[in-house]
């Protein structure tokens, strides 16, 4: 920072210039940028979780996933999903410094140019690919690799990214199989043109192969940024002009802000904090026992996520994969020793083989049937975001599906238990998702009490288009597995298994197995207020002053990729907008 920096900001103080609710992916990014430029201001980040920076479950890439269901997870679930056999689906979310960036699976990509241009076309001036891409590039420091070209990556940011040094032998047969299916290699898939088969970066530090995540920003913040961990905000305080004047903590403590409150509690919890504070749909607020302050019916609506399917295969003898870490303790100990000695190890591994494709590359039949259903579903009366989703469907530069080659078993059935004849199998999984789903759900509070979990209803597969698309996608991943040379590395399909053949059986499999790609967005959508928007293109909450939302919830429509780079990019751009207002 060029400015003099205050060193008397105290974490236990009761007045700050800026209060950021949620020390997660977006919260730490925006807080750090404010801290660096506004040296005279005191910036407080309030985070409900603890600091997990020393925890191997968080920092060791091979242990990603081991934190799900622990104290670092909010342990949320959906309501019973009517189109998924009434299953309640687990919604893992980070409750820890760094938020979901501390728990995520470290896939680092972006989506297509048109996905971002769509945000601007929906009524958000400046929120286009060119600008958001520039913000996303600020975030990262990519280690150059012969596996990746020059476009789409950058050096100089705080988050370290690289192409993983561990590639399982069986993964080598994936790109040539995709080429046989007409999908070309793409060596620069992060430049806004993701269609193709590619290896993509993970957010890992080259030096010690640990997770590089949003806490990296804090290392570059000034002493005027202070953290309150293990502290939950229960409500936002407004004066009688509806200006946010601070927050109330769970224990009743009031903390004042003289400039702004920035809400970065994530897609499931930012809308709830607005609702508890009186901003939302009047009927929903009254039902939950909250006195309404401002009628904003979009709060908590427009929830959408990439719905996931998967198929897994038992490898021929001789292939060694990450499953071995589960059943062979000697091997696991060797690999941990290598990891600790900073040598290449199976614990380095993160999924790194990716396919992005439009329906036209999957099959002409799938393309025409999905398009016909979508046209029927999206009538003139439908929401602006669904009409935009329909437009993106006819743009062949925009992927509609993603397939990840993932070593090891990711399955609904789970890994066979000791004693099962299949205990000890080595596997790979093709994990796939729909990039532009039509199903829309919601998240709302159940009561004014912040300690009660929100009612999360993503309505997975409620759209007939999504149901048909999910079946087409599941069939396609079996086709990939049965294409040489990939078909030569496995002996049997573990899941769904050969009993699933007809479209009806595939649909039953979809309903029984659909789950989250962990990319929920849209619940505080950046859209014009008349279109169901919650925040303006300056991320200000309609009907209020001094209050913005900066996190994944503001995305009006999903991008066709994993979303963390977009979340960091939103936060970088938000910081520019906020700084322009205060400097
Ligand atoms: C399991 C999982 C795997 C994923 N894998 C990938 C991937 O591989 N690649 C990718 O690109 N994306 C991935 N994602 C998505 C991506 O990580 C998230 O979209 C992104 O991190 C969300 O950022 P955010 O700032 O919106 O919210 P978060 O990072 O979740 O931050 C919200 C923060 O607010 C805190 N908070 C909430 N309520 C309160 C309150 N009342 N008071 C105080 N603090 C509060 C939370 O504890 C949390 O720290 C994954 C996500 C998950 C959960």
| CATH classification class of the largest domain | Alpha Beta
CATH topology (fold) name of the largest domain: FAD/NAD(P)-binding domain
Described by strand count, sense and barrel closure, the largest sheet is: 7 strands, mixed
Question: Percent range for helical residues?
Answer: 25-40%
Q: How many distinct domains?
A: 2
Q: Span from first to last CA?
A: 14 Å
CATH architecture descriptor text of the largest domain: 3-Layer(bba) Sandwich
Rg computed from alpha carbons, rounded to a whole number of angstroms: 23 Å
Q: Could you name the CATH homologous superfamily of the largest domain?
A: FAD/NAD(P)-binding domain
Give the tally of β-strands. Answer: 22
- Helix-strand makeup class: alpha/beta
Ligand species: flavin-adenine dinucleotide
The number of distinct helices, counting runs of at least 4 residues, comes to 16
User: Overall mean pLDDT score?
Assistant: 97
Tell me what you see in this structure.
The protein is α/β, with parallel strands linked by helices. It folds into two domains: 334 residues, 3-Layer(bba) Sandwich (FAD/NAD(P)-binding domain), CATH 3.50.50; 217 residues, 2-Layer Sandwich (Cholesterol Oxidase, domain 2), CATH 3.30.410.40. Helices cover 26% and strands 17% of the residues. Strand 12, helix 8 and strand 13 form a beta-alpha-beta unit. Helix 1 runs parallel beside helix 16. The mean pLDDT is 97. It binds flavin-adenine dinucleotide (FAD). The site of flavin-adenine dinucleotide has 39 residues, from helix 1 and helix 16.
């Amino acid at each position: 920072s060029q400015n003099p920096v205050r060193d008397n900001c105290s974490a236990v103080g009761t007045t700050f210039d800026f209060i950021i609710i949620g020390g997660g992916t977006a919260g730490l990014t925006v807080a750090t940028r404010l801290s660096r430029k506004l040296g005279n201001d005191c910036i407080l980040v309030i985070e409900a979780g603890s600091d997990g920076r020393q925890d191997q479950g968080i920092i060791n890439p091979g242990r990603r996933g081991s934190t799900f269901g622990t104290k670092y997870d909010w342990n949320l679930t959906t309501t019973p999903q009517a189109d998924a056999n009434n299953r309640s689906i687990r919604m893992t979310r980070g409750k820890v410094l760094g938020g979901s960036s501390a728990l995520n699976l470290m896939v680092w990509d972006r989506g297509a140019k048109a996905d971002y241009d769509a945000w601007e076309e929906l009524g958000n001036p400046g929120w286009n690919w060119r600008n958001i891409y520039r913000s996303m590039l600020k975030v990262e420091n990519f280690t150059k690799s012969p596996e990746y070209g020059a476009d789409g990556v950058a050096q100089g940011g705080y988050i370290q990214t690289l192409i993983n040094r561990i590639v399982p032998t069986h993964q080598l047969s994936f790109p040539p199989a995709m080429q046989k299916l007409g999908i070309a290699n793409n060596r620069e898939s992060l430049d806004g043109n993701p269609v193709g088969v590619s290896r993509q970066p993970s957010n890992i530090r080259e030096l010690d192969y640990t997770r590089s995540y949003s806490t990296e920003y804090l290392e570059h913040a000034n002493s005027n940024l202070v953290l309150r961990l293990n502290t939950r905000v229960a409500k936002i305080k407004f004066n009688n002009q509806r200006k946010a004047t601070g927050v109330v903590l769970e224990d009743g403590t009031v903390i004042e802000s003289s400039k702004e409150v920035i809400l970065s509690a994530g897609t499931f919890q930012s809308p709830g904090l607005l609702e508890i504070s009186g901003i939302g749909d009047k009927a929903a607020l009254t039902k939950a026992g909250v006195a309404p302050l401002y009628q904003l019916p979009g709060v908590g609506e427009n929830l959408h996520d990439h719905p996931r399917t998967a198929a897994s295969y038992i490898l021929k003898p001789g292939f060694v994969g990450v499953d071995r870490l589960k059943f062979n303790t000697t091997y696991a100990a060797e690999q941990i020793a290598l990891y600790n000695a900073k040598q290449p190890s199976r614990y380095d591994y993160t999924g790194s083989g990716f396919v992005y494709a439009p329906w036209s590359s999957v099959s002409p039949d799938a393309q025409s049937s999905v398009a016909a259903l979508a046209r029927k579903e999206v009538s003139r009366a439908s929401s602006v975001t669904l009409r935009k989703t329909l437009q993106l469907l006819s743009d062949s530069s925009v992927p509609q599906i993603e397939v990840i080659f993932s070593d090891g078993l990711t399955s609904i059935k789970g890994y066979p238990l000791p004693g099962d004849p299949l205990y000890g199998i080595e596997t790979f999984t093709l994990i796939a998702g729909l990039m532009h789903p039509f199903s829309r759900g919601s998240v709302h509070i159940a009561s004014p009490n912040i300690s009660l979990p929100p009612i999360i209803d993503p309505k997975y597969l409620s759209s007939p288009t999504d149901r048909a698309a999910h079946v087409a996608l599941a069939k396609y991943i079996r086709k990939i597995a049965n294409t040489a040379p990939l078909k030569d590395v496995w002996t049997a399909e573990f899941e769904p298994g050969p009993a699933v053949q007809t479209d009806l059986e595939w649909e039953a499999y979809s309903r029984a197995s659909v789950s989250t790609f962990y990319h929920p967005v849209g619940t505080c959508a950046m859209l014009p207020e008349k279109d169901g928007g919650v925040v303006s293109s300056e991320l200000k909450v309609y009907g209020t002053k001094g209050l913005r939302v900066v996190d994944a919830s503001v995305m009006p429509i999903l991008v066709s990729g994993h979303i963390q780079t977009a979340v960091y990019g939103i936060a970088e751009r938000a910081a520019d907008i906020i700084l322009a207002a205060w400097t």
